[in-house]
# Entry
Amino acid sequence: MMLDDLALVPSGTAVDETAPVVARTRSESIADGPFAEGPRIRNDTKVMIIDDEPLNVEGLEAFLTAAGYTNIVSTSDAEGARDLLFNEQPDVLLLDLMMAPLDGFEVLAWMRTERTLRHVPVIVLTSAADAETKLRALELGAADFLAKPVDASELALRLRNALAAKIYCDRVAYFDSLTGLPNRERCLDRVEWALRYAKRYGTVGAVMQVGLDRFKQINEALGPAIGDHILRVAARRLQKCVRETDFVAPSASRVADSVVSRLGGDEFTVLLPVMERPENAAVVAQRILELNGAPLSVGSREVFVSCCIGIAVFPADGTTKDTILKDAGVAMHHAKLSGDGYKFYSKDLNARSLHRLSLEAELRRGIERGELRAFYQPKVDLATGRLCGAELLVRWQHPTRGLVLPADFISIAEETGLIVGLGEWVLAAGCGQVKAWRTQGVVPPRISINLSSLQFRQRRLVQTVRDALAHAGVNACDLSLELTESAIMERGQENVHVMKELKDLGVALSIDDFGTGYSSLSHLKRFPLDEIKIDRAFLADITTDRDNAAIAIAVIRMGHSLGLRVVAEGVETAEQLAFLQANGCDEAQGFLFGRPVPPEEFGAMLQATASPLWPPLPR
# Structure
């Protein structure tokens, strides 16, 4: 068996909880490099003996026991040796060449075809001294030779050397250098073994894919050193969860231990190879969510890094490693989208994922083919009742699906990076439409355009806005850019600098969906804002829910204390409007005033605004 995922430190070294999770084998580590002092033998190093002579087996077992090995598996049944090898997954194999009916050469050849056994070091036991026999064994993957009769001291030395070489090779090939966890290659080995074990013995297991939420933003905001630290802590927490919620079936072999691996980036896998029941995976997932929800101290600040988990159960959800990992990934993706924490895979989830993949490809082509459309929703000044602005909302005119609303494609655009190109199109469309209205003799109000977090992080953002204004030939004062709370808070002072550059151009800046993030008065003071927009969630029951009403009033007063305009989104009833007017809200938008409409309809609305759209605030 290859390295497992426990922590490896040289003898006498204290374990640092903030240090990388470094793996060790059941044969322990070498203190100063792979061959410095030889491995310190642990009593769980598994040595397997295959020899069709029972007396030879007894002698070898006695030698090994005297040398300190206690986990010894042996057989004199050459024909059943392959099943035993597959089940036991030893660290090293002592193999007799001359056996019947299955000889050692056939065992070597078979091991090379088995993904989970091909790297197990094999020490061949033979009385043959001819070069042809040795060459053939070496070609089939033998690591070393022992001549019969076996000398005890030579056996101990060759075993130690074979295990030391294995430790070094496994460390390089199968473990992640940052976290010390098994890497993707090792994960695939273990998943393949677990699937074959389940098929052979009728057991049930699960693969859990774990993704850290917002890790990319945290890494960009705090730097790669902090990002690496967070990944190491996440690795330790996952291992702790698996150890504390062990649901391996009692009848399972010792090699059915749960394995935590790092797939790459901010994604990990947890393999539960043999469970008593599928529901046990949910208990492990819940424990992971609870432990991962604890704050992480990074210098003088606390960082919260939640996660989402997808669970695929085998053999029900798949019988190949590619299928089961794909299914776990699909479930994780939907857990992230839904915010449910964890989800079990289902065919319905897969169908939805295929639908999203299809939409992604179609959206990419749609942007290239000019299928996007700009719609405009009016904003009303609550003191005068007159139209004072508009928010540009993008729609997708799909050739077969019809008009697709943002809720069905914006999240896909954000996940795939298409939002950057889409956002540039929106900027150009908004600026171009302002110019077109002016050419028609219509005086347009200020147009608000949403910027995604990904757009806001683009280094060329200011230049992109400048180019859009210059190309259309419109003034910056015609444009307002809406940012989310989370977007402006991610990079602190760097964002302040970018926002000041945008303000220097002359555009207005607004916080969209205010109240859903983590802004405070002290935070808002840092940013050069013109406007805050109360999120529609607080308006839904504003006339009956005292908490929502209190929040809305507090936002209005806070905004005014900072000299900001306050806009309410999602106004749909006269009662909501009356509440907002009574409490001094400046502007509002929502279905009560008008739905988003194409530019031609909005242009007509602009020409017909001699009278207020809504009764003004009584004086």
